[in-house]
Amino acid sequence: MCGWRGLLALGMALCVSGCAAVRSYDAELHGTLDRAAGGNVEGAIKLLDASNPDKKSLLYQLELGMLQRLGGNYGESQKAWGGASAGIDAARAASLLGDAAQLAGSAASYMISDKLRPYRAHDYEQVMLLTYMALNYLALGDYESARVAIKQTHEREAEIAEERARQLAAVEEEAKKRGARANYKELNGYPVETIDNPEVNALKNSYQSALSHYLAGFVYEALGEPSLAAPGYRLANELQPGQPLLEEALAGLDARVAAPDDGKTDVLMIVGSGAAPALQSRQFTTPIFINNKLILIPAAFPVMVSGGMPSSRPQLALDGKALALAPLTSIDLMARRSLQDDMPGIMLRAAIRSTTSAALQYNAQHGDRQNSGAALVSALLAVGTVALNSADDRTWRALPAEISIARLRLPRGVHNVTLDGHSFPLEISGRYAVVDFRLLRSQVFVSAPGAGVAR
Questions:
Q1: In this predicted model, what pLDDT tens digit does every residue of 102-149 receive, in sequence order?
Q2: Domain with 276 in it: what CATH number?
Q3: Domain housing 382
Q4: 143-178 and 123-139 helices cross at what angle (nearest 10)?
Q5: Alpha-carbon distance 379 to 362, whole Å?
């Protein structure tokens, strides 16, 4: 069993890590999103600031950038997201090089809680970050910078695919060595259907979105690069098959690029609604055998719940005429697929923690009676590990749950737009334009060159 020094070191780690391990990110972001949904973006940012003393943390920068975007502050949003993107790159480099700080954080997670792991943006979050950075540039009318961000999304997807393959192989090998269960379907009582259902399993992976690739096609087309636009539209069709709007984009590409300016604007309208799903920590009992004695250990695992799914498809109208919205990307489903892919690693770390906790309990109950001090420390640590046993519930909540699009050609000038009962004027100019709407409960935010930010 553990010696005195090992026990005391673990005890110190528990004390230092207690606050981080019991923090409920879902509860914190619920209030933040409530304020934003009420139109009080500045209040939402203040609440986010109060909950996050570390202003360089990755998740804080992700949430902050989205709130600043909702407030129409695209420059500050890009600063926050630029920091987040740099943090993601640094974390990937550290992982490949075996950085000591990263390894220390991982070691703590194996002993105490996954919340002590340095936050690594989920696969879909990494790609959606670059996609929304491109949308920020488009709101500023900067298509060249949007092109750079679009190119980065393609590179990030390739990196994620390679990294995901390495991680899965490593987890499978380690689980086999330890004889640990890595299949979440064997976890008694876990709501498997929340992450394993036909809609989730229909996704190719957790990071490629039809929105990102359709937007790539639109940007390349606007810049007069049909050879680069075609692959974007084509992949969007593969990711979201059976959508006539997506098929039309590819079919008429060459004719649109070659056509002379007729005084109209090719407008892409994007409607994001709801909020990304939340992760919640729930306890499940795990049986562990120590010296042929059965010990039941409560283990925490993340469960995905809806973060505010729209009750119905948004209703969009232009100049009094209803527009058909084509469903393009479900971040809700992507998040669920991401958790499904992450569960083997989560299961492995939980198995190691449960075995450690069971050993401490056994030592406290059956240890050397002559060494009452060691038995007492073991008992205290066993209680402490159970108390701090909480699944990692960190995830980028300010993303929308569902994204749909409409595309049409409009005469340049001012048009009246109505989205779920909210009406406002929208000025359209140039040969191409992107208008991004965000419907957060009863609040509508508009991102477009010269557009107001909320209605």
A1: 444 454 455 556 777 788 899 999 999 999 999 999 999 999 999 999
A2: 1.25.40.10
A3: 4-447
A4: 170
A5: 9
